[in-house]
Design goal:
By secondary structure, this protein is mainly β. The chain has three helices and 14 strands.
Amino acid sequence: MLLFCRYVMMLILASLAYVPGSAFAQDTKLLTKYSISFLGLNVGKMANSYVLSDKAYTISGGVRTNAVVSLVADTKAYFESKGRISGTRLVPANHKLDYRSNKKKGGVKFKYADGNIVAVSSAPKVRYKPGAIPVVAAHKMNVLDPVSSLLFPVMPKDIGKGNKICNRVVPVFDGKARMNLVLRYKSKRLVKAKGFRGEAFTCAVRYQPVSGIRPFKKHIKFMKANRDMEISLARVGESNVYALFGFRVRTNRGMASGKAYHFAQY
């Protein structure tokens, strides 16, 4: 699940269009804060700010991890994504990520047109090793950046229905690799965090690599076969949009997880 394996996991090792009946009388703003654990130890935090309006969404935030164990680097990352939603489909407009890990730093930027990536810049420059499946133009069409994939819109009539919230295929390009995240409804439960008490819907996640990876690599085979990945989602205010509340991912080096301790409108 490379939203977490290449952004959150990398960091551990990181306009709403018109929908009938879902218009916001004013901007809905949500601040989320998560604690991140690896091998049972707290290794970092992530904070996201979501702004939803009748015409747009903006997600901005950052992650910081600390070298509590040898597998975790001291890392800081800042990200921002903007776009709109058409029905249950996200249509990103742009995305950027900047990070510093130990003595290394870098970043990536995407520019979209009608949901298709038309420009990518990265530093350092992405280089593919022999045997990598090529990323072709079609792999950058109707695809999300990893940050936009933190939002899950549903039709207003489907609010509170776990299968409608979870059951979907999320196409993601992270600047190097193209993948699909296949989500299926698993369960719901009551959760609480500062500013929130209510239902969270748990979705099982399967990772399907598409391109930009070497399929014979051990970690790719591990993640493709991995059945121990899930995310939980909670409703953003009175909107028809759900956002990340928590995650759990088994990696080939151990279990990583994250949970919101703050999930409040502001």
